[in-house]
Design brief:
Pfam families: Thiamine_BP
Family: Belongs to the UPF0045 family.
Strand order of the largest sheet: 2-3-1-4
Shape: globular
CATH architecture: 2-Layer Sandwich
CATH class: Alpha Beta
Order of helices and strands: EHEEHEH
Number of strands: 4
Protein name: Thiamine-binding protein domain-containing protein
Structural class: alpha+beta
Radius of gyration: 15 Å
InterPro entries: MTH1187/YkoF-like, Thiamine_BP, UPF0045_domain
Helix content: 40-55%
Length: 99
């Protein structure tokens, strides 16, 4: 499965920024060893249900350590029997664009 998720702390730093807290969530994802990528809006992670959801929970907990309230947006592509789809899905689009 692939999960795209975004975690937002309820409050920011003195300038209203949230990058330090969000960086803690990304650090958790990268340390998980699961295939992942981060873009401007979401972090994507691929793996089995239990391992992906455990990483999402750990990332939420990491952000919650910085703020009393956390917002989580999550979208999942559940497709049993398929792996490597984090890059393969994008490659199929690129191939279609080049046809």
């Amino acid at each position: 499965m692939i999960v795209a998720f975004s975690i937002t702390p309820a409050g920011g730093d003195d300038d209203g920024g949230v990058s330090a807290a969000v960086a803690e969530a990304v650090r958790v994802v990268r340390a998980s060893g699961l295939p992942n990528e981060t873009n401007a809006m979401f972090t994507n992670v691929e793996g089995e249900w239990d391992e992906v959801m455990a990483v999402v929970k750990q990332a939420v907990d990491a952000v919650a350590a910085h703020t009393p309230r956390v917002s989580l947006v999550l979208k999942a592509d559940v497709r049993p029997g398929f792996t490597g789809q984090l890059t393969a899905k994008v490659q199929r689009i690129e191939d279609a664009l080049n046809d």
